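Dear colleague,

Thank you for sharing your sequence with our group. We've completed the structure prediction you requested, and as agreed, I am returning the results in plain text so they can be pasted directly into your records. Please verify that the sequence below matches your submission; if there's any discrepancy, let me know and we will rerun it promptly.
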Amino acid sequence: MVREDGKRNFALREADGSEPSEFSGSMPRQAALKAARTLEPAPSEAEAERETIRLREKGTQKVHEYEGWAWKESAPEVDDEAGDFWLNDLDEITKANVSKQGIEYLDEE
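Please find the predicted structure tokens below.
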């Protein structure tokens, strides 16, 4: 269901059917990227192990399935005038990417 701010909520769905985490985004991919950043990051994108991420859109029986991976990268140089001064304290950041695999509809009631 869409919130007043246009975002939708998605529950991370485990293999056993449990839903331990929730992510929000205006599109399913945005929520999937947030979920992918919680994966164990690899030293580089080339070495990243791909994992299945299943997100059920709250209020529906629609499950979006993605292949996701995360990796560490050096933090970018920061322009203090841009307001990104908090990045100065970081040596590395976690980046992520996802690839849509499909949509499944649950039969549960």
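Summary note from our side: The CA atoms of residues 64 and 103 lie 5 Å apart.

Kind regards,
the structure core
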